[in-house]
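Database export, one record per block. Field names are fixed; values are copied verbatim from the stored entry.
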Amino acid sequence: MTIGRNALYFEDYVLSIQYFNQVINAKPYLAEPYFFRGLAKLNLDDNRGAEEDCSEAIKRNPFVVSAYQVRGLARIKQENYQGAIDDYQIALKYDPENIGIWHNMALCEIEMENYDKAKDDLNRLLKIAPKYTDAILIRGEVSLKQKDTIQARRDFDLAIEMDRYDGNAWASRAVLNLQEKRYAEAEDDLDKAIHLLPKTAGNYINRALARYNQKNLRGAMGDYDTALDIEPNNFLGHYNRGLLRAQVGDDNRAIEDFNFVIEMEPDNMMAIFNRALLLDRTGDYRDAVEDYTRVIDEYPNFWTGYQCRAEARRKMGDVKGAEMDEYVLLKAEIDRQNGVQPSNNADDDETTRKKSDKNMDNYRKLVVADDAESSSMYKSEYRGRVQNRNVVITLEPMYVLTYYEKSIEVRRQVHYYKYVDDMNQRHALPLPLLITNQERPLAEKEIAAHFASIDERTSAIVARPDDAMAYFARSLDFYLVQDFDNAIADLTQAILCDGGFFPAYFNRALVRYKQLEYLRAEAEMDQVSHAAAPDAPPAKGLDYDLVKKDLDKVIELAPDFVYAYYNRGNVLSALKDYRAAIVDYDKAIELDAGFAEAYFNRGLTHIFLGNNRQGIADLSKAGELGIASAYNIIKRFTSQEE
Protein backbone atom coordinates (compact mmCIF):
# COMPACT_ATOMS: atom_id res chain seq x y z
CA MET A 1 0.00 0.00 0.00
CA THR A 2 2.77 2.43 0.93
CA ILE A 3 4.78 1.68 -2.22
CA GLY A 4 1.65 2.13 -4.34
CA ARG A 5 1.00 5.53 -2.78
CA ASN A 6 4.64 6.48 -3.36
CA ALA A 7 4.22 5.59 -7.02
CA LEU A 8 0.95 7.54 -7.20
CA TYR A 9 2.51 10.63 -5.67
CA PHE A 10 5.44 10.54 -8.09
CA GLU A 11 3.02 10.09 -11.03
CA ASP A 12 3.89 6.47 -11.82
CA TYR A 13 0.20 5.68 -12.28
CA VAL A 14 0.48 2.36 -14.13
CA LEU A 15 2.92 1.04 -11.53
CA SER A 16 0.76 2.24 -8.63
CA ILE A 17 -2.26 0.33 -10.00
CA GLN A 18 -0.25 -2.90 -9.93
CA TYR A 19 0.52 -2.40 -6.23
CA PHE A 20 -3.10 -1.52 -5.37
CA ASN A 21 -4.23 -4.65 -7.22
CA GLN A 22 -2.05 -6.71 -4.86
CA VAL A 23 -3.62 -5.03 -1.81
CA ILE A 24 -7.14 -5.62 -3.16
CA ASN A 25 -6.38 -9.27 -3.85
CA ALA A 26 -5.05 -9.72 -0.31
CA LYS A 27 -7.68 -7.66 1.55
CA PRO A 28 -10.68 -6.93 -0.68
CA TYR A 29 -12.65 -5.44 2.24
CA LEU A 30 -10.41 -2.32 2.46
CA ALA A 31 -11.72 0.94 0.98
CA GLU A 32 -8.38 2.71 0.51
CA PRO A 33 -6.84 0.62 -2.28
CA TYR A 34 -10.00 1.03 -4.36
CA PHE A 35 -9.93 4.77 -3.81
CA PHE A 36 -6.26 5.18 -4.70
CA ARG A 37 -6.59 2.88 -7.70
CA GLY A 38 -9.51 5.01 -8.85
CA LEU A 39 -7.37 8.11 -8.43
CA ALA A 40 -4.62 6.55 -10.57
CA LYS A 41 -7.16 5.60 -13.23
CA LEU A 42 -8.52 9.16 -13.25
CA ASN A 43 -5.03 10.45 -14.00
CA LEU A 44 -4.81 7.95 -16.87
CA ASP A 45 -8.20 9.17 -18.24
CA ASP A 46 -9.91 5.87 -17.43
CA ASN A 47 -12.92 7.76 -16.11
CA ARG A 48 -15.36 4.85 -16.04
CA GLY A 49 -12.83 2.68 -14.19
CA ALA A 50 -12.18 5.53 -11.73
CA GLU A 51 -15.91 5.89 -11.05
CA GLU A 52 -16.32 2.16 -10.45
CA ASP A 53 -13.35 2.01 -8.06
CA CYS A 54 -14.58 5.00 -6.06
CA SER A 55 -18.02 3.39 -5.85
CA GLU A 56 -16.37 0.28 -4.41
CA ALA A 57 -14.47 2.45 -1.91
CA ILE A 58 -17.73 4.18 -0.87
CA LYS A 59 -19.46 0.81 -0.37
CA ARG A 60 -16.73 -0.13 2.10
CA ASN A 61 -16.50 3.26 3.81
CA PRO A 62 -19.23 5.83 2.98
CA PHE A 63 -17.67 8.57 5.13
CA VAL A 64 -14.54 9.36 3.09
CA VAL A 65 -15.04 12.75 1.44
CA SER A 66 -12.39 12.39 -1.26
CA ALA A 67 -13.97 9.22 -2.64
CA TYR A 68 -17.08 11.27 -3.50
CA GLN A 69 -14.88 14.06 -4.80
CA VAL A 70 -12.85 11.89 -7.15
CA ARG A 71 -15.98 10.03 -8.30
CA GLY A 72 -17.51 13.44 -8.97
CA LEU A 73 -14.54 14.34 -11.18
CA ALA A 74 -14.82 11.03 -13.02
CA ARG A 75 -18.52 11.71 -13.63
CA ILE A 76 -17.80 15.23 -14.84
CA LYS A 77 -15.36 13.86 -17.40
CA GLN A 78 -18.18 11.60 -18.62
CA GLU A 79 -20.51 14.67 -18.73
CA ASN A 80 -22.68 13.25 -15.92
CA TYR A 81 -22.96 16.60 -14.16
CA GLN A 82 -26.03 15.74 -12.08
CA GLY A 83 -24.29 12.61 -10.79
CA ALA A 84 -21.29 14.74 -9.80
CA ILE A 85 -23.56 17.23 -7.99
CA ASP A 86 -25.16 14.35 -6.08
CA ASP A 87 -21.71 13.22 -4.96
CA TYR A 88 -20.67 16.73 -3.93
CA GLN A 89 -23.84 17.25 -1.90
CA ILE A 90 -23.12 14.08 0.10
CA ALA A 91 -19.48 15.11 0.59
CA LEU A 92 -20.56 18.54 1.88
CA LYS A 93 -22.54 16.89 4.68
CA TYR A 94 -19.24 15.60 6.07
CA ASP A 95 -17.09 18.59 5.08
CA PRO A 96 -19.27 21.70 4.62
CA GLU A 97 -16.33 24.09 4.20
CA ASN A 98 -14.51 22.20 1.46
CA ILE A 99 -13.54 24.85 -1.10
CA GLY A 100 -12.85 22.39 -3.91
CA ILE A 101 -16.27 20.78 -3.63
CA TRP A 102 -18.17 24.08 -3.70
CA HIS A 103 -16.02 25.16 -6.64
CA ASN A 104 -16.73 22.02 -8.66
CA MET A 105 -20.42 21.96 -7.81
CA ALA A 106 -20.81 25.53 -9.10
CA LEU A 107 -19.13 24.57 -12.38
CA CYS A 108 -21.47 21.60 -12.74
CA GLU A 109 -24.48 23.87 -12.21
CA ILE A 110 -23.11 26.15 -14.95
CA GLU A 111 -22.80 23.19 -17.34
CA MET A 112 -26.46 22.41 -16.63
CA GLU A 113 -27.34 26.11 -17.15
CA ASN A 114 -28.60 26.46 -13.58
CA TYR A 115 -27.02 29.91 -13.35
CA ASP A 116 -28.85 31.20 -10.28
CA LYS A 117 -28.00 28.01 -8.38
CA ALA A 118 -24.37 28.33 -9.47
CA LYS A 119 -24.27 31.89 -8.12
CA ASP A 120 -25.74 30.73 -4.82
CA ASP A 121 -23.00 28.10 -4.54
CA LEU A 122 -20.31 30.65 -5.37
CA ASN A 123 -21.65 33.16 -2.84
CA ARG A 124 -21.61 30.49 -0.13
CA LEU A 125 -18.07 29.59 -1.16
CA LEU A 126 -17.02 33.24 -0.85
CA LYS A 127 -18.43 33.36 2.68
CA ILE A 128 -16.11 30.45 3.53
CA ALA A 129 -13.12 31.88 1.60
CA PRO A 130 -13.63 35.62 0.89
CA LYS A 131 -10.30 35.95 -0.95
CA TYR A 132 -10.81 32.98 -3.25
CA THR A 133 -10.51 34.80 -6.57
CA ASP A 134 -11.47 31.80 -8.71
CA ALA A 135 -14.99 31.98 -7.27
CA ILE A 136 -15.21 35.68 -8.11
CA LEU A 137 -14.06 35.00 -11.68
CA ILE A 138 -16.54 32.17 -12.15
CA ARG A 139 -19.33 34.38 -10.79
CA GLY A 140 -18.32 36.97 -13.38
CA GLU A 141 -18.53 34.32 -16.12
CA VAL A 142 -22.02 33.38 -14.93
CA SER A 143 -23.05 37.04 -15.13
CA LEU A 144 -21.77 37.15 -18.70
CA LYS A 145 -23.92 34.12 -19.56
CA GLN A 146 -26.87 35.98 -18.04
CA LYS A 147 -25.97 39.05 -20.20
CA ASP A 148 -25.29 41.09 -17.04
CA THR A 149 -22.10 42.78 -18.22
CA ILE A 150 -22.14 45.38 -15.43
CA GLN A 151 -21.98 42.73 -12.68
CA ALA A 152 -19.44 40.73 -14.68
CA ARG A 153 -17.14 43.76 -14.91
CA ARG A 154 -17.49 44.38 -11.17
CA ASP A 155 -16.39 40.80 -10.46
CA PHE A 156 -13.47 40.87 -12.90
CA ASP A 157 -12.28 44.21 -11.50
CA LEU A 158 -12.57 42.84 -7.96
CA ALA A 159 -10.59 39.70 -8.86
CA ILE A 160 -7.80 41.82 -10.39
CA GLU A 161 -7.77 44.11 -7.37
CA MET A 162 -7.42 41.10 -5.04
CA ASP A 163 -4.76 39.29 -7.09
CA ARG A 164 -2.94 41.20 -9.83
CA TYR A 165 -0.88 38.08 -10.60
CA ASP A 166 -3.87 35.98 -11.66
CA GLY A 167 -3.59 35.82 -15.46
CA ASN A 168 -7.11 34.40 -15.78
CA ALA A 169 -8.56 37.54 -14.18
CA TRP A 170 -6.96 39.78 -16.81
CA ALA A 171 -7.97 37.37 -19.59
CA SER A 172 -11.59 37.24 -18.40
CA ARG A 173 -11.91 41.02 -18.33
CA ALA A 174 -10.30 41.15 -21.77
CA VAL A 175 -13.06 38.89 -23.16
CA LEU A 176 -15.66 41.30 -21.78
CA ASN A 177 -13.82 44.24 -23.32
CA LEU A 178 -13.75 42.47 -26.68
CA GLN A 179 -17.50 41.85 -26.48
CA GLU A 180 -18.04 45.54 -25.75
CA LYS A 181 -15.63 46.54 -28.58
CA ARG A 182 -13.16 48.19 -26.19
CA TYR A 183 -10.28 46.86 -28.24
CA ALA A 184 -7.46 48.99 -26.80
CA GLU A 185 -8.47 48.08 -23.23
CA ALA A 186 -8.77 44.42 -24.24
CA GLU A 187 -5.25 44.48 -25.68
CA ASP A 188 -3.86 46.03 -22.47
CA ASP A 189 -5.54 43.34 -20.36
CA LEU A 190 -4.29 40.59 -22.66
CA ASP A 191 -0.74 41.97 -22.51
CA LYS A 192 -0.85 41.41 -18.75
CA ALA A 193 -2.52 37.99 -19.09
CA ILE A 194 0.19 36.88 -21.55
CA HIS A 195 2.95 38.06 -19.18
CA LEU A 196 1.46 35.86 -16.47
CA LEU A 197 0.29 32.95 -18.66
CA PRO A 198 2.73 32.90 -21.60
CA LYS A 199 1.74 29.39 -22.70
CA THR A 200 -2.03 29.97 -23.09
CA ALA A 201 -2.91 30.00 -26.80
CA GLY A 202 -6.36 31.56 -26.24
CA ASN A 203 -4.83 34.78 -24.92
CA TYR A 204 -2.85 35.26 -28.14
CA ILE A 205 -5.94 34.43 -30.26
CA ASN A 206 -7.93 37.09 -28.44
CA ARG A 207 -5.15 39.69 -28.55
CA ALA A 208 -4.91 39.09 -32.31
CA LEU A 209 -8.61 39.95 -32.54
CA ALA A 210 -8.10 43.13 -30.49
CA ARG A 211 -5.16 44.13 -32.69
CA TYR A 212 -7.02 43.34 -35.93
CA ASN A 213 -9.84 45.66 -34.90
CA GLN A 214 -7.25 48.39 -34.31
CA LYS A 215 -5.83 47.82 -37.86
CA ASN A 216 -2.62 46.26 -36.49
CA LEU A 217 -2.48 43.38 -38.98
CA ARG A 218 1.20 42.64 -38.41
CA GLY A 219 0.68 42.34 -34.64
CA ALA A 220 -2.40 40.15 -35.15
CA MET A 221 -0.50 37.86 -37.51
CA GLY A 222 2.32 37.53 -34.98
CA ASP A 223 -0.14 36.55 -32.26
CA TYR A 224 -1.72 33.87 -34.44
CA ASP A 225 1.75 32.50 -35.20
CA THR A 226 2.57 32.33 -31.48
CA ALA A 227 -0.78 30.75 -30.60
CA LEU A 228 -0.21 28.02 -33.19
CA ASP A 229 3.32 27.39 -31.92
CA ILE A 230 1.76 26.69 -28.51
CA GLU A 231 -1.33 24.84 -29.78
CA PRO A 232 -0.73 23.62 -33.36
CA ASN A 233 -4.28 22.27 -33.80
CA ASN A 234 -6.09 25.48 -32.79
CA PHE A 235 -9.01 25.92 -35.19
CA LEU A 236 -9.47 29.66 -34.69
CA GLY A 237 -5.76 30.29 -35.11
CA HIS A 238 -5.52 28.56 -38.49
CA TYR A 239 -8.80 29.94 -39.85
CA ASN A 240 -8.17 33.55 -38.89
CA ARG A 241 -4.51 33.46 -39.87
CA GLY A 242 -5.63 32.15 -43.26
CA LEU A 243 -7.94 35.15 -43.66
CA LEU A 244 -5.19 37.59 -42.68
CA ARG A 245 -2.66 35.95 -44.99
CA ALA A 246 -5.19 36.25 -47.80
CA GLN A 247 -5.63 39.96 -47.03
CA VAL A 248 -1.89 40.64 -47.29
CA GLY A 249 -1.46 38.54 -50.44
CA ASP A 250 0.31 35.56 -48.85
CA ASP A 251 -1.99 33.24 -50.82
CA ASN A 252 -0.06 29.97 -50.78
CA ARG A 253 0.41 29.97 -47.01
CA ALA A 254 -3.23 31.02 -46.57
CA ILE A 255 -4.21 27.93 -48.58
CA GLU A 256 -2.11 25.82 -46.18
CA ASP A 257 -4.09 27.21 -43.23
CA PHE A 258 -7.45 26.51 -44.87
CA ASN A 259 -6.28 23.02 -45.86
CA PHE A 260 -5.60 22.40 -42.17
CA VAL A 261 -9.04 23.72 -41.15
CA ILE A 262 -10.78 21.57 -43.78
CA GLU A 263 -8.86 18.52 -42.63
CA MET A 264 -10.16 19.20 -39.10
CA GLU A 265 -13.70 20.00 -40.30
CA PRO A 266 -14.29 18.52 -43.78
CA ASP A 267 -17.77 20.10 -44.01
CA ASN A 268 -16.70 23.64 -43.09
CA MET A 269 -18.15 25.47 -46.10
CA MET A 270 -16.72 28.88 -45.18
CA ALA A 271 -13.20 27.46 -45.14
CA ILE A 272 -13.84 25.63 -48.43
CA PHE A 273 -15.12 28.84 -50.04
CA ASN A 274 -12.15 30.87 -48.80
CA ARG A 275 -9.80 28.21 -50.14
CA ALA A 276 -11.64 28.32 -53.46
CA LEU A 277 -11.06 32.09 -53.70
CA LEU A 278 -7.35 31.58 -53.03
CA LEU A 279 -7.03 28.71 -55.53
CA ASP A 280 -8.79 30.93 -58.07
CA ARG A 281 -6.37 33.77 -57.35
CA THR A 282 -3.32 31.50 -57.72
CA GLY A 283 -4.53 30.09 -61.08
CA ASP A 284 -5.73 26.68 -59.94
CA TYR A 285 -9.16 27.14 -61.55
CA ARG A 286 -10.14 23.46 -61.71
CA ASP A 287 -9.73 22.91 -57.95
CA ALA A 288 -11.34 26.30 -57.28
CA VAL A 289 -14.43 25.32 -59.29
CA GLU A 290 -14.59 22.02 -57.42
CA ASP A 291 -14.62 23.90 -54.07
CA TYR A 292 -17.17 26.47 -55.34
CA THR A 293 -19.42 23.60 -56.44
CA ARG A 294 -19.27 21.93 -53.01
CA VAL A 295 -20.38 25.19 -51.38
CA ILE A 296 -23.15 25.85 -53.91
CA ASP A 297 -24.48 22.30 -53.53
CA GLU A 298 -24.74 22.94 -49.77
CA TYR A 299 -26.05 26.54 -50.10
CA PRO A 300 -27.94 26.82 -53.42
CA ASN A 301 -28.94 30.45 -52.67
CA PHE A 302 -25.38 31.66 -52.08
CA TRP A 303 -25.17 34.03 -55.05
CA THR A 304 -21.56 35.08 -54.47
CA GLY A 305 -20.62 31.44 -55.02
CA TYR A 306 -22.26 31.40 -58.47
CA GLN A 307 -20.58 34.67 -59.42
CA CYS A 308 -17.12 33.40 -58.42
CA ARG A 309 -17.65 30.04 -60.12
CA ALA A 310 -18.80 31.75 -63.32
CA GLU A 311 -15.62 33.84 -63.41
CA ALA A 312 -13.40 30.80 -62.73
CA ARG A 313 -15.18 28.77 -65.42
CA ARG A 314 -14.62 31.54 -67.96
CA LYS A 315 -10.91 31.68 -67.08
CA MET A 316 -10.59 27.93 -67.75
CA GLY A 317 -12.56 28.16 -71.02
CA ASP A 318 -15.82 26.61 -69.79
CA VAL A 319 -18.06 29.28 -71.39
CA LYS A 320 -21.20 27.13 -71.23
CA GLY A 321 -20.78 26.48 -67.50
CA ALA A 322 -20.11 30.18 -66.87
CA GLU A 323 -23.28 31.19 -68.76
CA MET A 324 -25.36 28.73 -66.74
CA ASP A 325 -24.09 30.35 -63.48
CA GLU A 326 -24.73 33.84 -64.88
CA TYR A 327 -28.29 32.81 -65.80
CA VAL A 328 -28.90 31.71 -62.19
CA LEU A 329 -27.58 35.08 -60.98
CA LEU A 330 -29.78 37.01 -63.45
CA LYS A 331 -32.89 35.10 -62.38
CA ALA A 332 -32.03 35.72 -58.70
CA GLU A 333 -31.63 39.45 -59.34
CA ILE A 334 -35.07 39.59 -61.03
CA ASP A 335 -36.60 37.68 -58.13
CA ARG A 336 -34.96 40.10 -55.65
CA GLN A 337 -36.41 43.09 -57.45
CA ASN A 338 -39.84 41.46 -57.38
CA GLY A 339 -39.45 40.68 -53.66
CA VAL A 340 -39.44 36.93 -54.23
CA GLN A 341 -35.82 36.38 -53.25
CA PRO A 342 -34.34 37.92 -50.06
CA SER A 343 -31.35 40.26 -50.39
CA ASN A 344 -27.92 39.70 -48.89
CA ASN A 345 -28.33 39.59 -45.12
CA ALA A 346 -24.69 39.83 -43.99
CA ASP A 347 -24.13 42.17 -41.05
CA ASP A 348 -21.52 44.50 -42.56
CA ASP A 349 -21.03 46.41 -39.30
CA GLU A 350 -19.37 43.41 -37.66
CA THR A 351 -15.78 42.35 -38.30
CA THR A 352 -16.27 38.94 -36.69
CA ARG A 353 -18.73 36.06 -36.68
CA LYS A 354 -19.44 33.31 -34.18
CA LYS A 355 -17.98 29.92 -34.98
CA SER A 356 -21.52 28.49 -35.15
CA ASP A 357 -22.63 31.18 -37.66
CA LYS A 358 -23.53 29.42 -40.96
CA ASN A 359 -24.43 32.56 -42.95
CA MET A 360 -22.17 32.19 -45.99
CA ASP A 361 -22.28 35.93 -46.65
CA ASN A 362 -20.04 36.33 -43.57
CA TYR A 363 -17.23 34.30 -45.13
CA ARG A 364 -14.73 37.20 -44.97
CA LYS A 365 -15.11 37.74 -41.22
CA LEU A 366 -12.74 36.53 -38.52
CA VAL A 367 -14.13 33.72 -36.38
CA VAL A 368 -14.57 34.05 -32.64
CA ALA A 369 -15.54 31.28 -30.23
CA ASP A 370 -19.19 30.88 -29.33
CA ASP A 371 -20.13 32.41 -25.99
CA ALA A 372 -19.99 29.08 -24.12
CA GLU A 373 -16.57 28.26 -25.57
CA SER A 374 -15.04 31.69 -25.02
CA SER A 375 -15.98 31.84 -21.35
CA SER A 376 -14.92 28.26 -20.65
CA MET A 377 -11.42 29.13 -21.87
CA TYR A 378 -10.96 31.23 -18.76
CA LYS A 379 -13.15 29.42 -16.29
CA SER A 380 -11.15 27.80 -13.53
CA GLU A 381 -10.58 24.10 -13.88
CA TYR A 382 -12.34 21.51 -11.81
CA ARG A 383 -10.51 21.00 -8.56
CA GLY A 384 -9.74 17.78 -6.82
CA ARG A 385 -7.07 15.40 -5.71
CA VAL A 386 -5.99 14.48 -9.22
CA GLN A 387 -2.45 14.66 -7.89
CA ASN A 388 -1.04 15.72 -4.55
CA ARG A 389 1.43 18.36 -5.63
CA ASN A 390 0.64 22.02 -5.20
CA VAL A 391 1.18 24.22 -8.26
CA VAL A 392 3.40 26.91 -6.75
CA ILE A 393 6.69 28.63 -7.42
CA THR A 394 9.09 25.86 -6.50
CA LEU A 395 12.72 24.88 -6.85
CA GLU A 396 13.91 22.79 -9.76
CA PRO A 397 14.04 19.14 -8.58
CA MET A 398 17.00 17.14 -7.25
CA TYR A 399 19.31 15.10 -9.46
CA VAL A 400 19.51 11.30 -9.39
CA LEU A 401 21.49 8.52 -11.03
CA THR A 402 18.95 6.46 -12.99
CA TYR A 403 18.24 4.83 -16.34
CA TYR A 404 15.38 6.96 -17.70
CA GLU A 405 14.60 10.62 -18.26
CA LYS A 406 11.89 12.65 -19.96
CA SER A 407 12.53 13.85 -23.49
CA ILE A 408 12.42 17.64 -23.51
CA GLU A 409 12.25 19.90 -26.55
CA VAL A 410 14.96 22.28 -25.42
CA ARG A 411 18.04 20.44 -24.15
CA ARG A 412 19.56 22.68 -21.50
CA GLN A 413 22.90 20.92 -21.08
CA VAL A 414 24.57 17.52 -21.21
CA HIS A 415 24.92 16.08 -17.71
CA TYR A 416 28.31 14.39 -17.62
CA TYR A 417 30.71 13.13 -14.99
CA LYS A 418 33.74 11.03 -15.87
CA TYR A 419 33.27 8.43 -13.10
CA VAL A 420 29.70 7.74 -14.28
CA ASP A 421 30.84 7.61 -17.90
CA ASP A 422 33.54 5.09 -16.97
CA MET A 423 30.88 2.90 -15.30
CA ASN A 424 28.87 3.02 -18.52
CA GLN A 425 31.91 2.30 -20.69
CA ARG A 426 32.66 -0.91 -18.80
CA HIS A 427 28.95 -1.91 -18.73
CA ALA A 428 28.92 -2.17 -14.93
CA LEU A 429 25.11 -1.93 -14.99
CA PRO A 430 22.52 -3.47 -17.32
CA LEU A 431 21.59 -0.05 -18.79
CA PRO A 432 23.53 3.23 -19.23
CA LEU A 433 23.36 5.36 -16.09
CA LEU A 434 22.06 8.92 -16.54
CA ILE A 435 22.42 12.02 -14.37
CA THR A 436 19.03 13.72 -14.53
CA ASN A 437 16.40 15.65 -12.62
CA GLN A 438 13.74 15.04 -15.28
CA GLU A 439 12.64 11.50 -14.46
CA ARG A 440 9.86 9.85 -16.40
CA PRO A 441 7.37 7.17 -15.31
CA LEU A 442 8.04 3.66 -16.59
CA ALA A 443 6.00 1.91 -19.27
CA GLU A 444 4.38 -1.41 -18.42
CA LYS A 445 7.09 -3.49 -20.13
CA GLU A 446 9.81 -1.56 -18.29
CA ILE A 447 8.09 -2.17 -14.96
CA ALA A 448 7.93 -5.91 -15.67
CA ALA A 449 11.61 -5.90 -16.72
CA HIS A 450 12.70 -4.29 -13.44
CA PHE A 451 10.65 -6.69 -11.32
CA ALA A 452 12.35 -9.55 -13.18
CA SER A 453 15.72 -7.84 -12.73
CA ILE A 454 15.22 -7.74 -8.95
CA ASP A 455 15.14 -11.57 -8.95
CA GLU A 456 18.23 -11.76 -11.17
CA ARG A 457 20.16 -9.29 -9.01
CA THR A 458 19.17 -11.23 -5.89
CA SER A 459 20.80 -14.35 -7.36
CA ALA A 460 23.93 -12.32 -8.16
CA ILE A 461 24.07 -10.98 -4.59
CA VAL A 462 23.76 -14.49 -3.14
CA ALA A 463 26.72 -15.49 -5.31
CA ARG A 464 28.74 -12.33 -4.52
CA PRO A 465 27.58 -10.95 -1.15
CA ASP A 466 30.42 -8.41 -0.97
CA ASP A 467 29.84 -6.87 -4.43
CA ALA A 468 28.83 -3.20 -3.96
CA MET A 469 27.85 -2.88 -7.63
CA ALA A 470 25.40 -5.79 -7.36
CA TYR A 471 23.61 -4.08 -4.46
CA PHE A 472 23.68 -0.74 -6.32
CA ALA A 473 22.17 -2.35 -9.43
CA ARG A 474 19.34 -3.92 -7.42
CA SER A 475 18.76 -0.63 -5.58
CA LEU A 476 18.10 1.01 -8.95
CA ASP A 477 15.48 -1.64 -9.73
CA PHE A 478 13.80 -1.12 -6.36
CA TYR A 479 13.94 2.66 -6.80
CA LEU A 480 12.38 2.50 -10.26
CA VAL A 481 9.44 0.43 -8.98
CA GLN A 482 9.09 2.97 -6.14
CA ASP A 483 10.07 0.52 -3.36
CA PHE A 484 12.06 3.11 -1.44
CA ASP A 485 12.66 1.11 1.74
CA ASN A 486 14.34 -1.76 -0.11
CA ALA A 487 16.24 0.70 -2.31
CA ILE A 488 17.70 2.36 0.79
CA ALA A 489 18.54 -1.02 2.32
CA ASP A 490 20.49 -2.03 -0.80
CA LEU A 491 22.29 1.31 -1.01
CA THR A 492 23.30 0.93 2.62
CA GLN A 493 24.67 -2.54 1.87
CA ALA A 494 26.60 -1.14 -1.12
CA ILE A 495 28.18 1.45 1.19
CA LEU A 496 29.10 -1.23 3.73
CA CYS A 497 30.80 -3.20 0.94
CA ASP A 498 32.64 -0.15 -0.44
CA GLY A 499 32.73 2.98 1.71
CA GLY A 500 34.26 5.01 -1.13
CA PHE A 501 31.50 4.28 -3.67
CA PHE A 502 29.94 7.76 -3.77
CA PRO A 503 27.02 6.98 -6.19
CA ALA A 504 25.44 4.91 -3.40
CA TYR A 505 25.57 7.86 -0.97
CA PHE A 506 24.23 10.19 -3.69
CA ASN A 507 21.22 8.04 -4.55
CA ARG A 508 20.50 7.19 -0.92
CA ALA A 509 20.25 10.91 -0.17
CA LEU A 510 17.84 11.35 -3.08
CA VAL A 511 15.62 8.40 -2.10
CA ARG A 512 15.45 9.57 1.53
CA TYR A 513 14.59 13.07 0.33
CA LYS A 514 11.77 11.69 -1.82
CA GLN A 515 10.37 9.79 1.14
CA LEU A 516 10.37 12.97 3.16
CA GLU A 517 8.76 14.91 0.32
CA TYR A 518 5.96 12.35 0.09
CA LEU A 519 5.38 12.17 3.84
CA ARG A 520 5.40 15.95 4.18
CA ALA A 521 2.88 16.27 1.33
CA GLU A 522 0.62 13.76 3.04
CA ALA A 523 0.84 15.71 6.31
CA GLU A 524 0.09 19.04 4.62
CA MET A 525 -2.53 17.71 2.27
CA ASP A 526 -4.79 20.21 0.60
CA GLN A 527 -8.13 20.43 2.38
CA VAL A 528 -9.96 19.12 -0.69
CA SER A 529 -8.22 15.77 -0.28
CA HIS A 530 -9.53 14.06 2.81
CA ALA A 531 -9.26 10.51 1.51
CA ALA A 532 -5.65 10.11 2.53
CA ALA A 533 -5.34 7.57 5.26
CA PRO A 534 -5.69 9.39 8.56
CA ASP A 535 -3.36 6.83 10.07
CA ALA A 536 -0.57 7.44 7.50
CA PRO A 537 2.76 6.71 9.18
CA PRO A 538 4.74 9.71 10.42
CA ALA A 539 8.20 10.45 9.11
CA LYS A 540 9.83 8.51 11.92
CA GLY A 541 13.44 7.51 11.41
CA LEU A 542 13.76 10.02 8.59
CA ASP A 543 14.94 13.59 8.66
CA TYR A 544 16.74 16.01 6.42
CA ASP A 545 19.96 15.74 8.43
CA LEU A 546 20.39 12.16 7.20
CA VAL A 547 19.99 13.37 3.62
CA LYS A 548 22.48 16.16 4.20
CA LYS A 549 25.03 13.78 5.79
CA ASP A 550 24.93 11.54 2.73
CA LEU A 551 25.54 14.52 0.45
CA ASP A 552 28.36 15.72 2.71
CA LYS A 553 29.98 12.32 2.19
CA VAL A 554 29.56 12.55 -1.60
CA ILE A 555 31.30 15.93 -1.60
CA GLU A 556 34.09 14.53 0.56
CA LEU A 557 34.61 11.60 -1.85
CA ALA A 558 34.02 13.52 -5.11
CA PRO A 559 34.57 17.25 -4.48
CA ASP A 560 34.07 18.11 -8.17
CA PHE A 561 30.70 16.31 -8.48
CA VAL A 562 28.60 19.42 -9.09
CA TYR A 563 25.21 17.71 -8.59
CA ALA A 564 25.99 16.95 -4.94
CA TYR A 565 26.35 20.68 -4.17
CA TYR A 566 23.15 21.41 -6.06
CA ASN A 567 21.18 18.70 -4.24
CA ARG A 568 22.54 19.82 -0.88
CA GLY A 569 21.42 23.35 -1.72
CA ASN A 570 17.90 22.01 -2.24
CA VAL A 571 18.01 20.20 1.10
CA LEU A 572 19.17 23.35 2.88
CA SER A 573 16.36 25.31 1.20
CA ALA A 574 13.88 22.71 2.49
CA LEU A 575 15.34 23.37 5.96
CA LYS A 576 14.93 27.13 5.27
CA ASP A 577 18.68 27.62 5.69
CA TYR A 578 18.69 29.86 2.63
CA ARG A 579 22.09 31.47 3.11
CA ALA A 580 23.82 28.10 3.35
CA ALA A 581 21.85 26.94 0.31
CA ILE A 582 23.15 29.92 -1.69
CA VAL A 583 26.73 28.94 -0.78
CA ASP A 584 26.12 25.49 -2.30
CA TYR A 585 24.50 26.92 -5.43
CA ASP A 586 27.47 29.30 -5.73
CA LYS A 587 29.84 26.32 -5.66
CA ALA A 588 27.76 24.44 -8.24
CA ILE A 589 27.87 27.45 -10.58
CA GLU A 590 31.59 27.87 -9.96
CA LEU A 591 32.11 24.25 -11.10
CA ASP A 592 29.70 24.55 -14.04
CA ALA A 593 28.98 28.06 -15.33
CA GLY A 594 26.16 26.74 -17.56
CA PHE A 595 24.19 24.99 -14.79
CA ALA A 596 20.72 26.40 -15.50
CA GLU A 597 18.93 24.76 -12.56
CA ALA A 598 21.51 26.10 -10.10
CA TYR A 599 20.92 29.66 -11.35
CA PHE A 600 17.15 29.14 -11.15
CA ASN A 601 17.23 27.78 -7.60
CA ARG A 602 19.73 30.38 -6.42
CA GLY A 603 17.48 33.07 -7.89
CA LEU A 604 14.43 31.76 -6.03
CA THR A 605 16.45 31.44 -2.83
CA HIS A 606 17.54 35.08 -3.10
CA ILE A 607 13.88 36.02 -3.55
CA PHE A 608 12.94 33.98 -0.46
CA LEU A 609 15.48 36.14 1.41
CA GLY A 610 13.97 39.33 -0.04
CA ASN A 611 16.89 40.01 -2.40
CA ASN A 612 14.67 40.44 -5.44
CA ARG A 613 17.25 42.23 -7.60
CA GLN A 614 19.85 39.45 -7.22
CA GLY A 615 17.14 36.83 -7.62
CA ILE A 616 15.88 38.34 -10.87
CA ALA A 617 19.42 38.46 -12.27
CA ASP A 618 19.86 34.72 -11.59
CA LEU A 619 16.43 33.88 -12.99
CA SER A 620 17.27 35.83 -16.12
CA LYS A 621 20.40 33.71 -16.58
CA ALA A 622 18.36 30.54 -15.97
CA GLY A 623 15.89 31.63 -18.65
CA GLU A 624 18.75 32.33 -21.03
CA LEU A 625 20.03 28.79 -20.41
CA GLY A 626 16.65 27.21 -21.20
CA ILE A 627 14.30 27.31 -18.18
CA ALA A 628 11.36 29.19 -19.72
CA SER A 629 9.32 29.36 -16.48
CA ALA A 630 11.95 31.75 -15.08
CA TYR A 631 10.50 34.57 -17.19
CA ASN A 632 7.06 34.30 -15.66
CA ILE A 633 8.56 34.60 -12.17
CA ILE A 634 10.68 37.56 -13.31
CA LYS A 635 7.51 39.35 -14.47
CA ARG A 636 5.89 38.91 -11.07
CA PHE A 637 8.81 40.11 -9.00
CA THR A 638 9.79 42.90 -11.39
CA SER A 639 6.28 44.28 -10.89
CA GLN A 640 6.80 44.10 -7.12
CA GLU A 641 10.10 45.97 -7.46
CA GLU A 642 8.32 48.72 -9.36
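Remark 1: The first strand starts at residue 352 and ends at 354.
Remark 2: DSSP finds 32 helices and four strands in the chain.
End of record.
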